[in-house]
């Protein structure tokens, strides 16, 4: 059984890739669920779905620990901590705890799908052509979603301007883009520090996305001599060392 599970998580067979695509789909569904329910009252139905998601996340979490060759290293990773907190937050309704806002950390689970990038490039030409744009967009969306959750969690009890997640999202986006309408503010030292983080880190991620969108298109191909990875789409020689390179063109082998 352990060998079988390890093959599904780390193997290179078609079945293993289909399994990882299924995990990716589950991650996206959970994130959409978090977004949808953040604007509604968490009644018995939502708490029941929370618990179901929590059971699946627990199974995934336990399986990855079971097959890990270095469990201590796995457990000390930040991504593992984020998964653990997300797991608790999904199961929290069973204990009557108000940890719903912690579910935003489940968004970090998408970062785990970066291991699928090689297969995604093989299966989807669009991903292969736009990998940098997709990953930069993902980083920005993860940051916005997490900061929205942090702002809502810290401001909702005391700030009348933050009445729901939509208000928190609105402030996050206006601060990130430095628009600063001023109709919503975060008072106090904690509020100001959160605003600083949103503006500095958010603008950095936003500029990274803009840079990727407007820079000349590059092709990923590792030069066998110097290791340079990004080249012009029509390059015949490596700009760094002059080595002849053989970049495959769409439709050719």
Could you give a short description of this structure?
This protein is 60% helix and 2% strand. The protein has helices at 2-10, 14-37, 44-67, 71-75, 78-91, 117-123, 125-129, 131-155, 165-176, 188-214, and strands at 218-220, 230-232.
Key features?
253 residues; mainly alpha; Four Helix Bundle (Hemerythrin (Met), subunit A); Helix Hairpins; 2 strands; 60% helix
Can you describe this structure?
It is a single chain. The protein has ten helices and two strands; from the N terminus they run H-H-H-H-H-H-H-H-H-H-E-E. Helices cover about 60% and strands about 0% of the residues. Helix 1 packs across helix 3 and helix 3 packs antiparallel against helix 5. It is flat, with a radius of gyration of 22 Å. Strands 1-2 form a two-stranded antiparallel ribbon. The mean pLDDT is about 80. The chain has three domains: about 1-120, Four Helix Bundle (Hemerythrin (Met), subunit A), CATH 1.20.120; about 130-215, Helix Hairpins (Orthogonal Bundle); about 220-253. By secondary structure, the chain is an all-alpha fold. The chain has helices at about 1-10, 15-35, 45-65, 70-75, 80-90, 115-125, 125-130, 130-155, 165-175, 190-215, and strands at about 220, 230.
């Amino acid at each position: 059984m352990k060998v079988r599970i390890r093959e599904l998580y780390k193997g290179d067979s078609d079945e293993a890739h289909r399994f990882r695509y299924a995990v990716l789909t589950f991650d996206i569904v959970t994130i959409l669920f978090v977004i949808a329910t953040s604007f509604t009252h968490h009644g018995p139905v939502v708490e029941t779905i929370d618990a179901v998601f929590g059971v699946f996340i627990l199974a995934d979490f336990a399986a990855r620990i079971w097959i890990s060759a270095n469990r201590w290293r796995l457990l000390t990773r930040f991504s593992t901590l984020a998964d653990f907190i997300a797991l608790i937050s999904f199961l929290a309704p069973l204990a009557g705890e108000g940890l719903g806002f912690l579910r935003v950390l489940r968004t970090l689970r998408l970062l785990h799908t970066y291991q699928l990038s090689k297969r995604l490039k093989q299966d989807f030409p669009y991903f292969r052509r736009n990998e940098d744009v997709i990953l930069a967009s993902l980083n920005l969306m993860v940051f916005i979603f997490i900061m929205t959750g942090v702002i809502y969690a810290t401001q909702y009890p005391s700030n009348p301007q933050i009445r729901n997640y939509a208000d928190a999202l609105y402030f996050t986006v206006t601060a990130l883009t430095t628009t600063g309408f001023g109709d919503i503010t975060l008072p106090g030292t904690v509020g100001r520090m959160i605003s600083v983080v949103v503006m500095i880190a958010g603008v950095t991620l936003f500029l990274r996305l803009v840079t990727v969108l407007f820079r000349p298109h590059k092709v990923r191909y590792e030069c066998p001599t110097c290791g340079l990875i990004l080249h012009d789409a029509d390059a015949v020689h490596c700009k760094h060392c002059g080595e002849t390179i053989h970049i495959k063109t769409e439709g050719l082998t």
